[in-house]
Specification:
Elements (H helix, E strand, L loop, with lengths): L3 H33 L6 E4 L4 E7 L3 E5 L6 E5 L3 E4 L9
Antiparallel strand pairs: 1-2, 1-5, 2-3, 3-4
């Protein structure tokens, strides 16, 4: 029997796992941890580009204020993209 082709397939699957699947699962785990650690007062950016400060957090959603006019928006937690300094507006 020719085991070289079987070994080649196993090596290709291992490379595929370590280069694509594992980093993606680590990224998802890090995002989920970030979303679970959201607190009132954090500045966030949503996946749609909305920037605001958190005023209420529950298990599945949060409420943010988006401007000085105190406009409040209710969002699902999965819609949060970034938290902290990266989400704040650049200095002028």
């Amino acid at each position: 029997m020719d085991y070289t082709s079987l070994i080649l397939i196993v090596v290709m699957i291992a490379v595929f796992y370590f280069l694509l699947i594992r980093p993606e699962s680590k990224r998802k785990k890090k995002q989920e941890e970030m979303r679970n650690n959201l607190q009132v007062g954090d500045t966030i950016t949503t996946i749609g580009g909305i920037i605001g400060k958190i005023v209420y957090v529950s298990n599945d959603f949060l409420v943010i204020e988006t401007s000085e006019d105190r406009v409040r928006i209710q969002l699902a937690k999965w819609a949060v993209s970034t938290v902290g300094k990266a989400a704040e507006e650049p200095a002028k």
